[in-house]
Amino acid sequence: MIGSCFVGVTLYQHRQDVRLFCYAAEGKTVKNRLHLDLEPTDRTRDEEVERLLGIGAAQVADQRRPDGSGWVVLADPEGNEFCVLRSAAERAAAPAPDAGVGPAGQAPSA
Edge-to-edge strand order for the sheet containing 72-75? Predict the structure, then answer.
């Protein structure tokens, strides 16, 4: 924690991602300027959605398709929206490329 901010660090095999998150006293009044697409690494998309719903997220939209592709839009308790995508393992196991475009212009196999 740094003042009213905290740092998030994600370590990968040969790189790390660092993000700084700061608290704002103002409530949300417009669409988020930052949109996060989360990809679970140790569970499926659906397991991660259930976990997040269990700790206070709310489902905004369900964009899952019958073929297993797609994503789920959730919101944190303050209304900030984010998407939960399929894991890399789920995408690798998919029989064929997905049609369409995913959240935030992401590649179709989200």
Answer: 36-38, 81-84, 72-75, 58-62
From residue 20, give the alpha-carbon distance in Å to each of 2, 12, 41, 58: 9, 18, 21, 24
The chain-wide mean pLDDT, for the chain, equals: 77
Closest among 34, 35, 59 to 49, alpha carbons compared: 59
Question: What does the alpha-carbon distance between residue 81 and residue 64 come to, in Å, rounded to a whole number?
Answer: 16
CA atoms 86, 88, 90, 96: torsion sign: positive
Q: What is the pTM of this model?
A: 0.64
Q: How far is CA 66 from the centre of its chain?
A: 20
Taken in order 38, 57, 81, 7, the sign of the CA dihedral is negative
User: 71: burial class by Cβ within 10 Å (0-12, 13-18, 19+)?
Assistant: buried
